[in-house]
Structures are given as C-alpha cells and as structure tokens.
Design brief:
Blueprint lengths: L1 E6 L4 E8 L3 E9 L1 H4 L7 H23 L8 E7 L3 H18 L3 E5 H12 L7 E6 L4 E6 L5 E6 L5 H11 L7 H8 L24 H17 L5 H27 L3 E5 L6 H14 L2 E3 L3 H4 L4 H12 L17
Parallel strand pairs: 1-4, 4-5, 6-9, 9-10
Antiparallel strand pairs: 1-2, 2-3, 6-7, 7-8
Helix pairs in contact: 2-3, 4-11, 5-7, 6-8, 8-9
Length: 333
C-alpha cells in the first residue's frame, strides 16, 4: 500500500511516500529554522504562512523522488494533532484536497503516534507490545504501545516539554535556536556535576514529569552570575542540564518497563537525538536486559515518513476521515 503523507504540526513542512508502513520511498522536509531563529523560537503565524507556500510543491517533489505517479497513491495521510493549530490546519486542508482530488481515502494520524512509528521504519523487526518514551519540543510522555493502534499514556509532563526546556536553556545561555544541538555539543566538554539542578517528582503520579523547575533553575544560575559579574561555565551547565533531563526520564521509563513486564523499550522524538540521553538509555537497557530501539537522528525530528508508517496501521484498523476532518492543538494519544 502506497501512502502520501503530510506533516505540518510545527516548523517543518514535510511530505513523504511510504509503502506498507515499513518502507520509505521518499521523504522531503522543508525546515523553517532560518525563519524563526531571529525570534529565538517558533512564531506560529510565520510557520503557518511558510507551510502554505511550500506544501504543494513539496508533495510534488516527494512523488517525483519516489518515482511514483499520482495514480499509484492508495491513500493520503496527515498529522492532524497535536501542534500549532494554524500550522496543523495547513497540512489538514492540503491533505483533504489531495485525497479528494486523487479519489483515495484520507487517514488521520496523531503526531506522537507518528514519532513512535518512526521506530518501525528504523527497525523492521519491532512489533508491539513495547514501551515508548516520546520526547520532543511539544510532547513528553511514556506510552504503553499494546498494539499498533492501541496505546495508553502512562505518564506525561505536567508543564513544559523536555524539548522546550532545551530551547529555553539555550536561549538564556546565548546559544541560539533551536537549542537541542548546541546544548548537546557544548555539554560534551563539561562537568555534569558542577551545577546542582533539581529533579522533580509529582506526588502520587510516579510516571508524570515536570521540567519547569529545571528550566527556572538554569535561568536563575545564569542571571545570578550576570548580576554578580561572575562567569558561567557554559559547558558544565549544559552537561549538568542534560544529566538532569536524562535523570527525569530514565528512572520512570525503567520503572514502567518493570511494571508492564516488557523487554522492549523505544525512544522517539527530537530530544532522542541528545547524546547523553541516548548513552544513558543504552547503558540502562543493557544492564536491565532490555532491547532498546532509538531511531537514527533523521527520523527523530519531525518528518512525514513516520506519519505514513503509522497511517498504514491506522488504515488496517479502519481509520478514515472525511472532508470534515479538523485539526487540534491538543489531543490525547
């Protein structure tokens, strides 16, 4: 089954062609980083306008790169939630028109389900059930993937997402936007024990997470040093920050694995590109005798191939949408 998929939930416009949920025929991504960097973060109105300008051409490019004709497309899929609502609606509107014009089914896909499905593209042997930690700029949650379309959230951040905190930490340190990569690179030469940073616990909710206190702690350290005229050891603060984020995520993931009795752990989303998090999870998985799945970096960031992968299984489960499909800023997985 050949699926044309569209992703536009934040600041990447993406179009891809996939086959049978496991094979990528083409994957085209237009990044808006250059448009938003000057503002230090994503500006929703600019993001929406940029999606409108490129989505049609990007879909045509995806078909050309895949070597398929419009007549070869069996379905159109789109990420319809969660995300920046204006940006989401651009993708949804285009996908509805494309499905109607091609005379094929329209398949709605939850964005986080797409991130989880990126692992199916990277690891053809991976099948549910397994536990997945989805960590990105807008979402941080632990998901019990009981089947391809049967998923249950075990815990999530109660405030900021992990990726958002990376961006805020990078901003206060003057590292630019997006913040994940520069923080990661700088952390590799720092002392992760130099700065004491908090690890939050949500009373009565062992799998929920909180990152706002960590973000505030980094801001306070930098501002206090500036007021005193003291230098900040940026590499060590970045290293301490990465260790603190990993320290929030890893214990909860391992505890959830033990409760579920699973031997497979997947990690997904843009924050999964962080080298400290990847290394900590690899070490913990080996110690626990658990198989770890983390996609390559290109599949960690937002892309449309992951939407096409999940769409295949949504289609098999009977998911279809009509011309009344709406986009949503927030939606449970």
């Amino acid at each position: 089954m050949v699926i044309l998929s569209i992703e536009s939930t934040c600041d990447e416009t993406a179009a891809a062609v996939t086959a049978d949920g496991r094979k990528v025929l083409s994957d085209q991504v237009f990044s808006q980083v250059g448009l938003h960097a000057v503002y230090g973060g994503v500006v929703p109105e600019i993001a929406s306008r940029a999606h409108v300008e490129v989505v049609s051409r990007l879909a045509e490019k995806a078909l050309e790169a895949a070597g398929v004709k419009k007549a070869d497309i069996d379905a159109v899929a789109v990420s319809y939630a969660p995300g920046l609502i204006g940006a989401v609606l651009v993708g949804v509107s285009f996908a509805k028109a494309a499905a109607y014009g091609l005379g094929v089914p329209l398949i709605p896909v939850h964005h986080v389900r797409g991130h989880i499905a990126a692992n199916y593209l990277a690891f053809p042997d991976l099948e549910p059930p397994f536990l997945c930690l989805a960590i990105s700029g807008g979402n941080t949650l632990l998901v019990d993937v009981r089947d391809y379309t049967d998923m249950r959230s075990l815990g999530a951040t109660v405030d900021d997402a992990a990726g958002e905190c990376f961006d805020k930490a990078a901003r206060v340190l003057g590292l630019g936007y997006p913040g994940g990569k520069p923080v990661d690179e700088l952390s590799k030469t720092g002392d992760d024990k130099k700065y004491s940073l908090p690890r939050a616990h949500v009373a009565g909710r062992p799998y929920d997470m909180s990152f706002s206190g960590l973000k505030t702690a980094v801001v306070n350290i930098v501002h206090t040093a500036e007021q005193r005229g003291e230098p900040v050891d940026k590499p060590s603060l970045c290293a301490s920050f990465c260790a603190a984020v990993s320290g929030e995520l890893l214990p909860r993931a391992i505890a959830a694995l033990r409760e579920l009795g699973y031997k497979k752990l997947a990690v997904a989303g843009g924050v999964a590109a962080n080298s400290r998090i990847r290394a900590d999870f690899e070490a913990a998985a080996e110690q626990a005798g658990v198989r770890l799945y983390i996609p390559p970096l290109r599949l960690c960031v937002d892309n449309a191939a992951m939407i096409g992968a999940q769409a295949y299984y949504e289609y098999l489960a009977g998911a279809r949408a009509g011309s009344d499909l709406n986009g949503y800023a927030n939606l449970e997985i």
